[in-house]
Each structure stands twice: as structure tokens, then as C-alpha cells.
Amino acid sequence: MQALLKNTFIVMFIIVGAVVGLVVGIFWTDLIPASLALGAFFGGILGIMADSFTGRDHANWKKT
Predict the structure, then answer these.
(1) I need a labelling partner for 61 at 20 to 30 A (CA). Which of 4, 32, 45, 55 fits?
(2) Quick check: is 62 in a domain?
(3) Please, what's the b/e burial string for 22-50 (b: 16 or more CB within 10 A of its CB; e: otherwise)?
(4) What mean pLDDT do residues 8-34 have?
(5) What pTM was estimated for this model as a whole?
């Protein structure tokens, strides 16, 4: 979990997904917590996929 939180790219997608889920929950359903959680979940999946497609080697990757 700490490695996931250190990766700001994935966290950015989680936050964007949560905001989109919150907007969808406010305008289209009464299930605001459920759509917030689903948005964060799918945002996290998209973040992990996008991060793996960038091809960074996390074991040897250093911040400059």
C-alpha cells in the first residue's frame, strides 16, 4: 500500500476517478458513496494500467 501511495501517477488517476464518480453520483443516482468508491476503484485500475504502459522500471527508478 505504501508503494501505491508513493506513486503519484496512480494516486492522480484515483483522485480524478473519485471526482468523476462523485459528479456522476450527484447528477444521476442517489448512491453517492457507491459511485465515489467505484470511480476511485476504476481510476486506480486505469492508473495502474497507464503506469505499466509507460514502462518505468520501478526497481531502478530514481527521482532526479
Answers:
(1) 45
(2) no
(3) bebbeeeeeeeeebbebbbebbbeebbee
(4) 74
(5) 0.50
